[in-house]
Design goal:
binds (Z)-L-Arabinonhydroximo-1,4-lactone; globular; Tachylectin-2, Chain A; seven-stranded antiparallel sheet; 2 domains; 46% strand; Jelly Rolls; 491 residues; 1% helix; mainly beta
């Protein structure tokens, strides 16, 4: 798969990009996780560093406890205009809607959200024309002028384009002025295997639009490309005048129908212009193979921006301040089966990886989980003198292994390894859970088929997230490590 890796691997879909001078910034969807809308910086479009999250405080985003998995925050557009950054996004949760936030420094702080009650539909885009009118364009594809300072709409919504006749779900619009021509880029075909990107052009941001005869300008539908579901794109021009496209794609593994386990990831491709139309080149390899090992000793008073939690997180149940150098988690609800489980994880962004954590369950229980959503997760849990490997797959919940251990701190781990395709039903990967003893040796307790923690099984728009959780009582974590898996897992 060399050469076809994402630039931002792991569950980072719906990328929106802008450039200011030599700096590129990119934002993604975050769904039911907080903090919301991860924000990245790059100088070369290949190496990206997360510099924050746009919706990083409860005053900007509170998701109800019953916000469905893959609900919440959808598809932002990030732009720089008039000396500041603007980000428009949809909160699909009850009482949400479209909202606009601004910042002078993209690392934050971002403003409190300005609600846009007159803007209906997901995937909002904003663009300013030569007269300074701000146009907001949403899935459908429809458009309404707005006042971006008050949030008021300044006219009636108008249908702009429905995309290619017969293609479903015209969505993810973005508008660009290139010379004297306006381009309307959209996704269509749905965000699964039929996904694609099409374009139309016209004399103004509100059209009339003429579709590109070569549409879709990007799609991997019905190909055997290892990267599938490509779509939901955004364009950016480099300082040298060249154009680039960022878009989402997935990497299915295993036999038929193929299971993708990391969610929808962000890819990059060059764009050239022919006869006034964008032509998308092949995927440019990201830097996944050079991914560094990650270690967190929980020494900092705040968690790094890559740590996310479902629906809500606050210091009363998740803090590094109670005991210096420890992450303290206090259990809520029925643990990982609850929508508001006390879980703090990082997106699994390597197909082959190893995670370890040092846990002191005290009088409670907790451990290390690989989570797709509250109905799909595998975990290794310590408490009451035992370690158990547990699996939740849809309505089924089962303990797959158990080991008696001395009370006190323990090192729990999981190795994730892609599997060779032996036949049509081969799964994508295996997750091997176990315990590391005082001598450093890893004892595997259970090896589980990864297909059940894939989007094809669980449904929705997210990907795997790996990290510590508390199932009962108060649980302390000394450290967490995550690294590329170089050796085969212990069988
Ligand atoms: C998003 C839509 C899509 O709003 O998936 O892939 C939806 N495209 O445009 C959720 O990310």
């Amino acid at each position: 798969m060399a050469g076809r890796t994402p630039v931002i691997p792991g569950f980072h879909p719906d990328p929106s990009i802008c450039r200011v001078g030599d700096d590129y910034y990119l934002a993604c969807s975050s769904f039911e996780y907080v903090p919301g809308v991860p924000l990245f910086h790059s100088r070369d479009l290949l190496h990206w560093t997360q510099i924050g999250n746009v919706l990083d405080r409860p005053g900007q985003l509170t998701l109800p406890r019953d916000a469905p998995a893959s609900g919440g925050i959808y598809a932002p557009t990030l732009r720089h205009h008039d000396g500041r950054f603007w980000l428009i996004v949809t909160n699909c949760a009850e009482g949400g809607g479209n909202l606009l936030v601004t910042a002078t420094d993209p690392a934050g702080p971002w403003s409190d959200p300005l609600p846009l009650p007159g803007v209906h539909g997901i995937d909002p885009d904003i663009v300013w024309d030569e007269d300074g009118t701000c146009w907001c364009t949403t899935a459908g594809i429809s458009q309404v002028p707005i006042d971006p300072y008050t949030g008021r709409t300044l006219g009636e919504p108008r249908r702009l384009w429905s995309g290619t006749p017969g293609a479903k779900a015209p969505e993810a619009p973005h508008l660009y002025r290139v010379g004297d021509t306006w381009y309307l880029l959209i996704a269509e075909g749905g965000t699964e295997r039929g996904h694609g990107v099409s374009v139309a052009r016209g004399p103004s941001p509100s059209g009339p639009f003429e579709p590109c005869p070569a549409n879709p300008v990007l799609s991997h539908r019905s190909t055997d490309d290892p990267v599938q579901n490509t779509g939901h794109a955004d364009l950016v021009q480099a300082p040298d005048g060249n154009w680039w496209m960022v878009f989402l794609g997935v990497r299915p593994g295993g036999g038929s129908p193929g299971w993708h386990v990391l969610g929808r990831e962000t890819f990059l491709a060059p764009v050239r212009w022919e006869d006034g139309w964008p032509v998308v080149g092949g995927i440019v390899a990201g830097a996944e193979s050079a991914a560094p090992a990650y270690r967190d000793d929980f020494d900092a008073p705040e968690l790094a921006p890559g740590w996310i939690s479902p629906r809500s997180r606050n210091a009363s149940h998740c803090t590094t301040r109670d005991r210096p150098g420890r992450l303290t988690l206090r259990a809520r609800g029925a643990g990982l089966d609850s929508p508001d489980v006390t879980f703090v994880g990082r997106r699994q962004d390597l197909l082959s990886c190893r995670a370890r954590t040092r846990v002191d369950p005290g009088e409670g229980s907790g451990g290390l989980a690989v989570r797709l959503d509250e109905d799909h997760h595998y975990e290794i849990e310590a408490g009451g003198g035992t370690v158990r490997v547990l699996a939740r797959i849809g309505p089924l919940r089962t303990a797959v292994a158990e080991l008696d251990v001395p009370e006190g701190p323990l090192t729990l781990g999981v190795d994730v390894s892609p599997q060779p395709v032996r036949d049509a039903r081969s799964g994508p990967d295996t997750l091997t859970f176990g315990v590391t003893g005082p001598d450093g040796a890893f004892t595997a307790l259970a090896a589980l088929d990864g297909r059940y923690l894939s989007t094809e099984v669980a449904g929705g728009f997210t990907g795997r997230v790996i990290g510590p959780y508390a199932a009962e009582g108060t649980v302390h974590f000394d450290w967490f490590t995550y690294e590329p898996l170089k050796e085969p897992p212990v069988a």
